[in-house]
Specification:
- The protein is of the alpha+beta class.
- It is built from 15 helices and 20 strands.
- It has helices spanning 3-10, 34-37, 41-44, 49-54, 64-67, 111-119, 123-153, 173-179, 239-271, 276-297, 346-363, 370-384, 461-464, 475-485, 491-506; strands spanning 16-20, 26-29, 74-82, 88-99, 102-109, 158-162, 168-171, 210-215, 218-227, 230-237, 308-315, 323-329, 334-342, 391-399, 404-410, 415-419, 424-428, 446-449, 455-459, 515-522.
- The strands form 4 sheets. A 5-stranded antiparallel sheet has the order 2-1-5-4-3. Strands 7-6-10-9-8 form a 5-stranded antiparallel sheet.
- Strand 12 (323-329) and strand 13 (334-342) form a beta hairpin.
- Helix 10 runs parallel beside helix 11 (346-363) and helix 11 packs across helix 12.
- It is globular, with a radius of gyration of 28 Å.
Length: 533
């Protein structure tokens, strides 16, 4: 099984998973290990496990592998870990030998349990802690036996593990339901796809890592991963994605062809200096048209919701940019508010921005969970973006009836929230990586409430990173001051005051990055007029 497949299978688990050989070289980690080491899983491969986890230069004293490399079964130890952030963490680690030269360690975070145990001093509390610990140990034992099968069985995508004789060793519920096969003992893996003999693109015979199948009018994308003598097949229903991607690829091909023709034209222009200005003007006009097209993708008008005031602005650093904001009206008083920033500038960023907008509007309508929406967008972008570009995004779903937000962030700047009751500006963020690079990501979701007089200020980093001639950034402090100073202004006027201050600060220096601002303000109720005396 390759690292990408393992990552997709295990990144969603609460456990920290690490696989090593008998020389303590790391062969695989899931994404959660990065919370301890501070490194991406790819950076930890073939590094010593005791170095990336503890910072040691030699194996841990209580390491089961160091004590007996031929041990069988599972050994459980308590580990005292200091993360790369300096935070102390207690973990219960189960070591299992799964092959001649491969061991898997599964960490369960028991920091809170351990701290509670250390606080208990008298016998009644000690007895309670012991009972709790014993129950937890039993749960861990059960999880160690069943966690893989349960995790696989509960996945939304189909999972099947087969041996070299094409026998099905494991198949999850989703794939059983899709294929209609219930008795795996009487069927081979190729029977699941409706074949009577091994598939022509079988990874046991070829080096294929990906294939397409059609099952009951559904288009399924299969990822193959070899692991020892087994093949892991991961299936995902990509019927809608394939249609969307076909449309996007067609657009990309048109853009590539246009770029190719422009390249030929530019080569000819070197030999035809007398036509340089004319052709340059044509190019500038086309870039303007890209910018106009991009601006046309932005909302024609902001929402009109009783009790709320909205404002927005978009200022590209070039004629076309990679920033994006949107207001998506849903059912039952819900609105989705997006602010996103595509890495890079110009036409490529504008294209990715347009793709992102299309995905958001096509797939996240009436998805009131902000984290679920970002997960869907990320998976589709990963199948579509084949460059080093990525997208940061902050997504807020507002119930305008009660003022409740569902919030999620994909590596984006924190939202600035002016709390009128405390007269303070707070930063709101949520953990989550940027979109379009790593599949299978999950995003933290937070809830927030906006009351009368409060301001929800969303923006891209071009605002706080705007520089003057001394290469000094505008920064958060100056922006916070303006939010507090102009909090009583309508949303549009507030944005105008902020941008005037930014231009005063930069003193005419051109913006190096796109600037986007989206403001949501909950209005105060009008005071009753005094009765005429």
């Amino acid at each position: 099984m390759d690292l990408n497949t393992l990552t997709r299978l295990f990144d969603g688990l609460d456990s920290y998973i690490i696989a090593v050989d008998s020389e303590f070289n790391t062969k695989f980690t899931n994404g959660r290990v990065s919370l301890i080491s501070g490194k991406h899983p790819d950076e930890m491969i073939n590094k010593k496990c005791y170095n990336i986890i503890h910072g040691y230069t030699q194996p841990c004293k209580n390491c089961p592998i160091a004590e007996d490399k031929n041990f069988q079964g599972t050994k459980v130890i308590i580990k005292d870990i200091v993360t790369y952030k300096g935070e102390r963490m207690f973990a219960r680690s189960a070591f299992t030998r799964i092959a001649d030269d491969l061991y898997v360690s599964s960490f369960i975070d028991i920091t809170e349990i351990e701290r509670e145990r250390q606080k208990l001093t008298h016998s009644s509390k000690e007895s309670k802690a012991n009972n709790f610990r014993l129950a937890h140990e039993r749960n861990i034992k059960d999880n160690e036996i069943n966690f893989l099968e349960k995790a696989i069985d509960n996945m939304a995508q189909g999972i099947m593990i087969v041996d070299e004789e094409y026998n099905i060793k494991t198949i999850n519920k989703m794939l059983k339901d899709t294929s209609g096969i219930k008795d795996i003992g009487r069927n081979k893996c190729y029977n699941v796809y409706g074949f009577q003999e091994p598939c022509k693109d079988c990874p046991f015979k070829t080096n294929n890592i990906k294939a397409l199948r059609q099952m009951h009018d559904k288009h399924m994308t299969i990822m193959f991963s070899k692991f020892d003598k087994y093949i892991v097949e991961s299936l995902r229903d990509t019927t809608r994605e394939i249609k969307l991607i076909d449309d996007i690829r067609e657009s990309q091909e048109e853009i590539k062809e246009k770029q190719r023709q422009m390249s030929i034209m530019n080569t000819d222009l070197l030999r035809m200096n007398e036509k340089l200005k004319t052709v340059q003007a044509m190019i500038e006009e086309e870039l303007k048209q890209v910018g106009h097209i991009q601006e046309s993708l932005l909302p024609e008008k902001l929402p009109e919701v009783s009790g709320y005031d909205f404002g927005a602005t978009y200022i590209p650093a070039e004629q076309a940019g990679g920033d994006y904001y949107d207001c998506i009206q849903m059912s039952n008083n819900y609105w989705g508010f997006v602010v996103a920033d595509v890495s890079g500038h110009g036409t490529p960023a504008a294209v990715i921005m347009a793709i992102t907008r299309a995905i958001m509007r096509s797939y996240t309508f009436d998805v009131i969970s902000a984290s679920d929406a970002l997960t869907m967008v990320n998976d589709i972008l990963c199948d579509n973006i084949h460059t080093k570009d990525f997208v940061t995004m902050f997504y807020a779903v507002l119930n305008t009836h009660n003022g409740t937000f569902n919030l999620a962030s994909a590596g984006h700047n924190p939202v600035l929230f002016f709390d009128s009751s405390e007269f303070i500006v707070k930063k709101i963020t949520a953990s989550g990586m940027f979109l379009g690079t790593f599949e299978g990501l999950s995003f933290e979701e937070k809830k927030w409430y906006i009351e009368e007089g409060d301001i929800f200020f969303m923006y891209t980093d071009g605002l706080v990173e705007a520089m003057n001639s001394h290469r000094e950034q505008y920064g958060y402090d100056r922006l916070v001051s303006k939010l507090m100073m102009f909090n009583d202004y309508p949303a549009d006027r507030l944005i105008k005051e902020v941008m005037e201050d930014v231009r005063d600060f930069t003193a005419g220096a051109p913006f190096e990055d796109d600037i986007t601002i989206l403001v949501i303000k909950r209005n105060k109720k009008e005071e009753k007029k005094e009765e005429d005396k």
